[in-house]
Amino acid sequence: xxxxxxxxxxxxxxxxxxxxxxxxxxxxxxxxxxxxxxxxxxxxxxxxxxxxxxxxxxxxxxxxxxxxxxxxxxxxxxxxxxxxxxxxxxxxxxxxxxxxxxxxxxxxxxxxxxxxxxxxxxxxxxxxxxxxxxxxxxxxxxxxxxxxxxxxxxxxxxxxxxxxxxxxxxxxxxxxxxxxxxxxxxxxxxxxxxxxxxxxxxxxxxxxxxxxxxxxxxxxxxxxxxxxxxxxxxxxxxxxxxxxxxxxxxxxxxxxxxxxxxxxxxxxxxxxxxxxxxxxxxxxxxxxxxxxxxxxxxxxxxxxxxxxxxxxxxxxxxxxxxxxxxxxxxxxxxxxxxxxxxxxxxxxxxxxxxxxxxxxxxxxxxxxxxxxxxxxxxxxxxxxxxxxxxxxxxxxxxxxxxxxxxxxxxxxxxxxxxxxxxxxxxxxxxxxxxxxxxxxxxxxxxxxxxxxxxxxxxxxxxxxxxxxxxxxxxxxxxxxxxxxxxxxxxxxxxxxxxxxxxxxxxxxxxxxxxxxxxxxxxxxxxxxxxxxxxxxxxxxxxxxxxxxxxxxxxxxxxxxxxxxxxxxxxxxxxxxxxxxxxxxxxxxxxxxxxxxxxxxxxxxxxxxxxxxxxxxxxxxxxxxxxxxxxxxxxxxxxxxxxxxxxxxxxxxxxxxxxxxxxxxxxxxxxxxxxxxxxxxxxxxxxxxxxxxxxxxxxxxxxxxxxxxxxxxxxxxxxxxxxxxxxxxxxxxxxxxxxxxxxxxxxxxxxxxxxxxxxxxxxxxxxxxxxxxxxxxxxxxxxxxxxxxxxxxxxxxxxxxxxxxxxxxxxxxxxxxxxxxxxxxxxxxxxxxxxxxxxxxxxxxx
Length: 845
Description:
With 845 residues, this protein is α/β, with parallel strands linked by helices.
C-alpha cells in the first residue's frame, strides 16, 4: 500500500525553530527504539530513504530515513549530522569532510561537519567522546573548566553518533525500491551446507539450542545497547544544558544581588549605576543547533537567501515588506532594499522545489510553516503577522497550485516574539503593520487548503504558565517546542501506519470520525458498536477534509492544547501513587480482599491508588455516556449519594472558563465560551500521560467523540487517541528533559516525573472563535489604506507595496472572511465598530 508523501517547507527563523522540533518529533514517531517494536507512524509519509555516504550504491550500502523538507533562511550555521549520499533527487554527493571533532574555535562556522560515513563506537562508561584518556572524569566538566571544548560540540558529537551509527541509530532503512539488484541470483552452496546441518542436528535439538543461544545473545546485546543509548542521552542533556541553560540561574542571582545593591546605594544616597543588560551573557539558541541527525544533504534541503538575515540591519526593507517577498525585483543586489531577485526566485527557490518533487513518487500534500513577523516593526506586530516570508510563501503557494494541483496545502504562520521599533515612526509602523498583516491573511488563506495562525508567546505561556519570564532565546526555543508538540499530535491521523481492516496486529492509534464526507468503516473490534466511523489511518486529503466545512472560504483554523500535568505531582509522590496510599496490586496478590470489593472502594474514593482513571480521563468522561455507565455500575457503592451533573466537553473550554485548554493561536483573553460559537469542524488528538493505564487507551475515544459532537455540534468532528506517551516518544533523551522541568518555586520534582504525568492534548478547530483576529486584521488593513496616503504612495513607487487595486481586492477578501466567521446573532459576541475594541481580545500582553 503506497504511502502519502508529504513535503515540509519552512520559511524564516521563527518557523525554522518550530520545524526543527517538529522534524525531530516526526522522526521519533516514525521509527522504533528497537527492532522488536513497530513504529507508531509510517516513515515514508514524512521521510525519504537516503544513502548515508557518497559512494556508488551497492548491496552493502547503508540507507537511513531523512526528513523530506525544504528550509529557507539566510543563515544555516555549521553543517553537522548530514548524510552525504546519493539521492534520487539528482544531487551529487558532497566531498566527505574530515571526521575529526577538533576544529578551530576561531572559525565562525566551527562545528561538526557533514558525516563521512565512518563511525567510531564511543565508550559512554567513561564518556570518551572527544578522544580523552580512559578513566578520566566527565569530559563536559573538564573541558568546560579548561575551555578546550564547546559543550555544543559535545552535544553535536553525541547526537551524530546516535543518529548516524549503524549500531545505535533508529533511522536505519533498507534500500529504496529503485535500487537495482539481481534478485534471481541464488547461492546454492549456502543452501546445501544448511541442509547438511539440518540433517545432523539430532531431530532439530541442536538447531533449537542454537536459536536459543542466538536469542540470549541478542537480548544481551540489546540490553547493552539500551544502556549505551541512555548514556549518550545523558551526555546530550548535560551538554545542551551547559551550552544554553547553565548561566540562567547564576544570572538570575546576579540580577537579584545587583537589584539589592542598587536599592542599598539609593538608601545611602549614592548615585545608581546604569542598569546592566545580562542578555549578552546568554548564548542564543539557533534552530540548527538542535535539529537532530540524520539530516538530508545540505544541497537537498537548504534554500539560502541572497543575504544574511542574522546580520541584517533594522532598516533593511526586505524585513518589513510583504511585497518584496511576493514580487521579486530585477535588482542585482544581495540585500538591503533589493530583497530577493527574480533570478534567485527561479534558479534557487523553484529549482530546489523541483528537485524535491522529483524525488517523490506521489506527493499528496505540503505542510508550510511561515515566519509571519513584521520584523522590527514594534511590539504589536506579533498580534497578526505578515511580512517578507509571508509574501514569499504566497508566491510559493501559487506555484504549487500550478505544479501540483491535486496536492493539499496546510499552512501555519508563526507570530514572532515582540521586538522594539527603532527605525519607524508610530504612524508609519502602524500603516506598514496593517498593510502587511492584511496582505498576508489574503495571500495565505486564499491559496491554502487550511490556514492556522500560531503564537510563540501563547505556546510558551501554555507550557510555562507559572514560570518567570525567560530570555528571548529560551522563550523562542521553549515556545516553538510547545507548538511542535501540539502540531505533531494534531497531525497524527494521516501519519499512522496504514493497517488493513482485517489485520490481527494490535493498533496503537484509534481514529473516530463523524462526517458526511468520510464514511470510513466499522471494524470488528472495539469500535464495532460505536455510532461513529473509524479508521486506522487517514489520507492527507481526508485529514484536510476533516478540517474544512462545506463552505470553501472557511479555511481559518485555531489550535488549543494541554501540555502540562493537570495537577503537578509532589516531590514525595512516585508515578504509582502517593506515599501512605494502599497498594492495590499487593492486596490483590495477597488475597486480603476480593477484586469486587476493592473496585467498589476505589470507585467510591475510600482508598487511593491502583487502577483508577487518570484525572484527564475523568475530565474527558464527564457528562458522557461512559460516565453514566460507570455510575450505574457503582451506584450501590456510592450509598445513594448524588453526583454533580456536567455537560460533555467542558474540558474543551479555556482554563479561564473552567476547562483545560490554552490557546496557541494568540487568543490570550476569553472571547466567550465555546457553547456560544458556531463550530464548523473540531478535531481532538490525545497522547495520554505515561502514568495512564493501558485500558484508558481503549476507553478515551468514545467520550472524546461525544464531547466534540454532543455539546458543540460541528459539521465534521474527529477524535484521535495514540497509545504512545510523550515519554515513550522522546525517551526523554537529548534536550527534551529541559522542557519538562517543574519551574515552580521550591519544586524539586524530577523532569521524568513531570513528563510521566504530562499528556499532549491538541484541539484543532474551525469556528467563529477566530473572529477577533480576522476583525482586527481587516480593520487594520482598511485603516492603513485610508490614512497617510503619502506613505502608501511612496511604498508603491519603491516596490515595497502592491498597487492600490491589488490592496483593495485583498481588503475586500478580508472583510468577507470576517462575515463568514461572525458569531451567532444574540450571543453578544458580534462587535460594532463604534463601541468595541477588537484588539483587546488579541494577544498583546
